[in-house]
Amino acid sequence: MSPVPNGTLTEPAGAMNSRAAAGSTRWQRCRRWLLPLLGIAVLAMLLSHVHKIDWAGAWHALQRYSPWLLLAVLGLATVSHALYGCFDLIGKHHLRHRLSYWRTWAIAVTSYAFNLNLGSLVGGIGMRARLYARAGLDEATVAQIVGLSLATNWLGYGLLAGGLFAAGVIEPPRQAPIGEGALRALGAAMILLTLGYVVACAISRKREWVIRGRHLHLPSARIAATQLLLSTANWALMGTAMYLLLGQKVPYATTLSVLLAASIVGVLTPIPAGLGVLEAVYLALLSGTVKQGALMGAVLAYRALYYLVPLAGGLALYLFLERNLPAQEGIMPPVEASAA
Fold first, then answer.
1. Are 166 and 191 in contact, with CB atoms under 8 Å apart?
2. pLDDT of 84-126, one tens digit each?
3. Which residues pair with 214 in a beta bridge?
4. Residue ranges of the domains in the chain?
């Protein structure tokens, strides 16, 4: 300890930094165990109710779907995946890297399919990092592309989920850890954060930050608005797909709200493809509105058409990129971020 003029003692900066680092390390260790435990708890909750699920009714519901309806939902899923690929095009426009538009889009679509089924570390980050590195982009550029894509995805989520949660479209079950009032407050906070990002991009005078030696450029208001528009449209397409599979028996706003709630629970539980999480949330929130067999049939059809079928396409696209992507295509250093 060292004295200060008023006679008190202050801790040396090195000791304070050590304590902060130790606290951060403890939190990382706790998080490493807490998230898997949470995922196991959710999965155990679902498994404990497996014997109560009307699997025969789910199978009959799947058989009753018309081929045209399934094709329509598959079409919506295809458009959604294609739209997600445009998220990385925002990064290309902002960073001006040398990789072509179609390869950038293909890498994003491939990583999204793997992300949904194998988790963000494999698809959203690992797949992108490998394919972009093979194309010659440096780590800093790849990190900014991934960061912009993630921001784009959650901007639309924040606007839609925030509005629906704040409006009280869904009522949490009694056993849920969050009440209706807290959910409304959370929704309002999500809207403020989303709009705050767009406003910051529009009026902030400081456009560049240096974090660990890496230069980060704040997007323009036009780019932020594009991020919000594309992401909102993507989440809306996902909700429309489930709305059709539920036979339009549940209001669209409610269907979308439950999908958004299931998505965030899936992110918090480290289970690949959110296996069991999507089903558990739908059973908890809609079992009193839709017959259990029809509900499970819709969820299983959605998982097949939005997760599994696109994974086959993503695998084919990945093999094509691995075989035909010229190494070092984007090796030229990126131009400074766009101010437009």
1. yes
2. 999 999 999 999 898 999 999 999 999 999 999 888 777 778 8
3. 211
4. 1-48, 57-324
